Amino acid sequence: MHIFPYLVAAYVFLTGCYGLATSRNLIHAVGCLAICQSSTYVLLLAVGYRSGATAPVFSDLTPGSRPVVDPVVQALTLTDIVVGATVTALLLALVLQIAKRHGTVDPDELRELRG
Questions:
Q1: Which pLDDT does position 115 carry in this prediction?
Q2: pLDDT averaged over 10-residue windows placed end to end, the chain, 115 residues
């Protein structure tokens, strides 16, 4: 049962990649990138999980008496959420500017952007 979170993370990541590869809309592509990013939340939490562990607060017990969950992985997950939200907001702002200047969000119709 301990492999299940890794399988979920892989499934969510591959679902986001499939949506990104088949996307015909820039807003849909940004959403698929956000889904790919959310798979890393599951992966990080799966790495930091310990069966039978408690929160890392040592006010009522002596250190080393019970297993505790790694707080660094939880902090990395929160940082990942903030970075993911920021990147998604930035990409949506760029899509909004593309829609204003070119009148479309279809990547095939953006011929001026090709090199």
A1: 60
A2: 89 96 94 95 88 75 75 90 96 94 86 65
What six digits make up the tokens of 89?
């907001």
- The 8 Å CB, 24+ separation contacts for 102-111 are 105/25, 105/26, 105/27, 106/24, 106/25, 106/26, 107/23, 107/24, 107/26, 107/29, 108/24
Residues in the chain: 115
Give the Cα separation of 15 and 51 in Å (integer).
28
* Tokens, residue 75: 């902090």
- Please give the Cα distance from 70 to 96 (Å, whole number): 40
Q: How far is CA 51 from CA 18, 67, 70, in A?
A: 33, 9, 12
Measure the CA–CA gap between 26 and 32, rounded to whole angstroms.
10
Q: In the beta sheet, which residues pair with residue 54?
A: 68
CA–CA separation, 103 and 11 (whole Å): 35
**Strand-pair partners of 68:** 54
Provide the token pair at 38: 């959310």
How far is the C-alpha of 3 from the C-alpha of 17, rounded, in Å? 21
